[in-house]
Amino acid sequence: MARFLRVQCKCGNEQNIFSNASSVVKCNACKEPLAHPSGGEAVIHGKIVKELG
Q1: CATH label of the domain that carries residue 44
Q2: Domain limits at 46?
Q3: Measuring CA to CA, which residue among 1, 11, 24, 16 is closest to residue 48?
């Protein structure tokens, strides 16, 4: 089930990403990758802080 996630980067920045991201999602602050596509659910590289409705 696709959903939005609040993910925290190792630099401390938090941002919302889509759980089924179809492209690499990078941190807005430090440009580290937060998620990579994997043909379905994205591989999340940050800490999932919260699932958003």
Answers
A1: 2.20.25.100
A2: 4-52
A3: 16
